[in-house]
Amino acid sequence: MLTSLLFALAACNPPVNDDTADTEGQGDETGETDDTGEPGGPVSVAVGEVVDMDVAEDGTVSIDVVDPGNYIVILASFAKGQGETHGYGERYEEAARVEPSDVLPSRPIDTRPPTVSAAVGDERTFDVYDGDSYVTITAKVTAVSDMVVVWEDQTTPNELGTIDEEVVAEVIWNLEDHVIPRERQVFGEESDVDASGKIDVLVSYTVNQYGAVAYVTQCDIGPVAGCGERGNEGEIVYLGVPDPDDSYGTPAGITETVAHELNHLIYGWHKYVAQDQTDASENIYLTEGMSALAQDLTGYNNGNQYVWAAALDATDYLGSDATIDSVSINDVLRGSSYYDVERDGALRGAAYLFLRYCFEQAGSMGVESDGTLVDEGGMTWLHDWFDSPELGIDTVEATMGRPVEEVALDWYTALVVDGRVENDNPAYNFEPRVVDPVTGYEFGVDMYALIHGWLQLEGPELQKVDRNDGEIRSGGVEYLKAELTEAGTIRVAVDPEAKAVARLLRVD
Q1: 3-state SS of 222-260?
Q2: 365 with 297: CB under 8 angstroms?
Q3: Taking Cα atoms as reference points, which of 7, 232, 4, 241 lies closest to residue 135?
C-alpha cells in the first residue's frame, strides 16, 4: 500500500460548488432564458461546436437541438465524494464506497550523521522497505559522477544479478545531461540535506520484494511526521534490480524511472519541507501525476504512454478498469489517503492528463533544436505550484485562477474534442506532440496514438445515450453518443446528488 511518505512507481503490465460558469470568450452557446428563467428554444449546433446543456432541479440535463447529426453528451459530476457512484438514465443506486488503503508502518529513527561524499567501494547501511517491514541492509558504491552516486545492495540475495556497467554508465549520462538539469529548470532545485550535491540511486532487491519498480520517501529529506528525526538522510531513489529482459531494465527505462522518482523528491522538498508543513500530505495520484509529467517534460515520455492510455480506453489491452469510466477528478485531487488498486492505472493516467492540460493552458514550453527548453508560461506555472503553500484542489485554483470545476469541465471537454473534430477553442484542445531532438521521444499526449506499434488508442470510451451503464462517478465523466435524424431533444435523467453539468459536442 502507498502513503504520502513513500512514493512508488509500480510495475505495469502488459509488456511493457456544484455550479460551473462559462469561460469568457470560449464561444459556448446556450439556450437563452425568458423572464421566468425557464430554458429557451432549440439551438443550432455546428459541427465541432461545444454548447452547454440545461440542468434542471431534479438533476436532468437536456438540450433542444435543431440540426440532425451525431452528437456526444459530455456528462460530468461535481459531487465531492470519493469512490462514490451516482445513477443516471434509469438507474439511481445507493452510492458505493471504496475504503482508503492501509498505512505503512513508521520508519525507525536513524541518528547517523549525513554522508558528505562517497567514492567507489565505500559502504554504508540503509533502512529499506521490503513490502513487510523496514530492514537494514549494507550497500556499496559502484559508480560516482558529478551528480549521481550509485549504490548496490550487498545484503539481499536476488536472481537478477547486478546492472551491467555499460547500462549504468548510459543511465548516469542521461541523468546528468538531460534529466537532472531539466527537472531543476522546469520544477525547481532538489534539496541537499546530506551536503553531497548528488542524487543517490540505491539498487536493492528489497524494492522488487515490495512489488515496485522504484520509490522514494520524504523521510530522507524530512523532518516529516511519522518518520522520527531522520530517514536515510539524502536525496535517495530506491531502485529495484532491473530485469534486463524487461522494458524497465533498459537504459531509457531506468532513466525514466529515476526521472519520475526525482520529481517526488523535488516536490516533497518544495511543497512540504521548505513550506514548513511537514505533517501535510496530498492525494497520492496528484503526486504520481506530477511525476509522470516529469517523465514527459524531461524527454522520456515512453512507458508513461501506457499510463495515460489507461485513463482513456485501453480495456482491450490493459483490462476492464482502463477506461474513462474509472476516472474521477475527486479521486486524483481530494484528500490524502485515497487509493484504489483496481483503478490505479486509470487514476495515475488521469492525474497526468489533467496536469498536462493545466501546464499547456498556462502556456507550456518551447523546445529548441538542441533540446533547450524555453518557458512560455508552463514552467512558471509549475514553479508557482511547487512553491505554493496550498494543497490539492486549492493549488489548482490558486495557480489556474479559476474554480476547479471550471478547469475540470474544460479538461473533460478537451479529452473528447481533441483529435476528433475541428475546434479552434484552445481550451478544448491539447498541443500537438513534438519530438525531443535529444532523446527521440515525444512530448505530450495524443488521444489517437499508436503506442509502440500495437496499442491503438481511439479517444476516451463512448457509450450510446440510450444504452449506457447508468453510473457516473462523483467527480467523473461519461461520454454518451446520440444520433438525431431530425430536430429533437436530448435528455438524460441524473441523480441530483451527482450535481451534474453537461455539454454537447456535434461530431458530424
Answers
A1: CCCCCCCCCCCCCCEEEECCCCCCCHHHCHHHHHHHHHH
A2: yes
A3: 232
Give how far Cα 382 sits from Cα of 266, 274, 282, 293, Å. Answer: 12, 16, 16, 10
In tens, the pLDDT along 328-367 reads 999 999 998 899 999 999 999 999 999 999 999 999 999 9
- Cis link prior to 68 (omega < 30° from 0)? no
Note whether 340 and 365 are within 8 A (CB): no
Which among 179, 470, 472 is positioned nearest to 324, based on CA atoms? 472
User: Which residues are 217's β-sheet partners?
Assistant: 6
Please answer whether residues 58 and 492 qualify as being in contact, where contact means their C-beta atoms are separated by less than 8 angstroms. Answer: no
Helical H segments across 269-373, by residue range: 284-297, 304-309, 315-318, 329-333, 344-361
Please give the single-letter amino acid code of residue 495.
D
C-alpha cell at 338: 485515497
Backbone phi and psi for residue 177, each to the nearest 5 degrees, phi listed first:
-85, -30
Alpha-carbon span 385 to 403, nearest angstrom:
15
Q: How many residues does the structure list for the chain? A: 508
Give which of 38, 39, 49, 41 is closest to 74, Cα–Cα.
49
487, 68 Cβ separation under 8 angstroms: yes
Q: Report which residue type is found at 30.
A: T
Query: Does the global pTM surpass 0.85?
Result: yes
pLDDT tens digits along 8-26 = 654 433 222 333 333 333 3
In angstroms, what CA-CA distances link 312 with 16, 79, 263, 317, 323? Answer: 18, 21, 24, 12, 5
Looking at residues 435-464, what average pLDDT do you find? 95
C-alpha cell recorded at residue 147: 551528480
Distance CA 154, CA 140 (A): 7
Radius of gyration of the chain (CA): 24
For residue 83, which of 319, 394, 327 has the smallest C-alpha distance? 327
Taking Cα atoms as reference points, which of 339, 231, 223 lies closest to residue 284?
A: 339
Cell of 161: 544479478
Q: Which region holds residue 226: left if phi is over 0, alpha if psi is between -120 and 50, else beta?
A: left
Three-state SS annotation for 4-43: CCEEEEECCCCCCCCCCCCCCCCCCECCCECCCCCECCCE
